[in-house]
């Protein structure tokens, strides 16, 4: 399965996180653990790609993010293989990815040696979702192996609705007195907190 992802992101303080959580009626929170992969030579990072296996309560998925061909800001192509949770756990225990699906095909197209992909970091996120006319609002609290924690606001949007969604997101930041801060992606943050356990 492949789809184009367009989203806005901003890091939050704990207070901003709590204020947004109290203001909006999010769906019940759920947990997911992301386990990130790359080669020893950072072959994925060099091509601005990201690879993870994500564990949910009852199932799992493997996702590869690649830059959109047009290189428009905020846009990525996501390729995902759905996995049974037991399969995903076996793969992780063996420090491997699933090699039979769509993700493996895209990796081969980018000349990535699948056998060289190994676990580089992991993090567990408590996620809250809210569907709005402007897009899917996501409120994340992420914990890392060194017991640090960060907070993030995301909005996944329809590119056809870009201006309306952008205006909504900017207004939300203003209303909650949130400074616009460039966001390092979750892989980079997980790596930073994985190597300083």
Q: What's the short story on this structure?
A:
By secondary structure, the chain is of the alpha+beta class. Helix content is 27%, strand content 40%. Strands 1-5-4-3-2-6-7-8 form an eight-stranded antiparallel beta barrel, surrounded by five helices.
| Number of discrete domains | 1
Strand content: 35-45%
CA radius of gyration: 17 Å
Quickly give the CATH architecture. Beta Barrel
Name given to the CATH homologous superfamily:
Hypothetical Protein Pfu-838710-001
**Unreliable segments of 5+ consecutive residues:** none
Strand numbers in spatial order across the main sheet: 1-5-4-3-2-6-7-8
Q: Return the CATH class.
A: Mainly Beta
Largest sheet: 8 strands, antiparallel, barrel
CATH topology: Hypothetical Protein Pfu-838710-001
The mean pLDDT is 93
Q: What is the H-and-E element order?
A: EHEHEEEHHEEEHH
Task: Name the helicity range.
Answer: 25-40%
Distance between the termini: 35 Å
Question: How many individual β-strands?
Answer: 8
Shape: globular
Pfam family, one: CYTH
Domain CYTH: 3-197
Protein name: CYTH domain-containing protein
Write the layout of secondary structure elements.
Elements: E1 2-12, H1 14-23, E2 30-38, H2 43-46, E3 50-55, E4 59-67, E5 75-84, H3 85-93, H4 102-109, E6 118-132, E7 135-143, E8 149-157, H5 162-175, H6 186-194
Antiparallel strand pairs: 1-5, 1-8, 2-3, 2-6, 3-4, 4-5, 6-7, 7-8
């Amino acid at each position: 399965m492949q789809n184009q992802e367009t989203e806005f992101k901003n890091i939050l303080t704990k207070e901003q996180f709590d204020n947004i959580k109290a203001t909006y009626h999010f769906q019940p929170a759920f947990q997911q653990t992301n386990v990130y992969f790359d080669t020893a030579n950072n072959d994925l990072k060099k091509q601005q790609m990201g690879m993870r296996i994500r564990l949910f309560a009852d199932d799992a998925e493997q996702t590869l993010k690649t830059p959109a061909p047009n290189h428009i800001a905020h846009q990525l192509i996501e390729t995902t293989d759905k996995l049974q949770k037991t399969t995903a756990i076996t793969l992780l225990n063996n420090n491997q990815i699933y090699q039979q699906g769509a993700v493996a095909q895209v990796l081969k197209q980018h000349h990535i040696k699948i056998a060289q992909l190994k676990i580089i970091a992991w993090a567990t996120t408590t996620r809250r979702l809210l569907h709005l006319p402007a897009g899917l609002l996501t409120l994340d609290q992420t914990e890392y192996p060194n017991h640090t924690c960060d907070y993030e606001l995301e909005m996944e949007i329809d590119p056809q609705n870009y201006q309306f969604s952008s205006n909504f997101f900017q207004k939300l930041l203003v209303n909650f007195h949130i400074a616009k801060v460039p966001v390092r992606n979750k892989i980079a943050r997980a790596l930073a907190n994985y190597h300083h356990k």
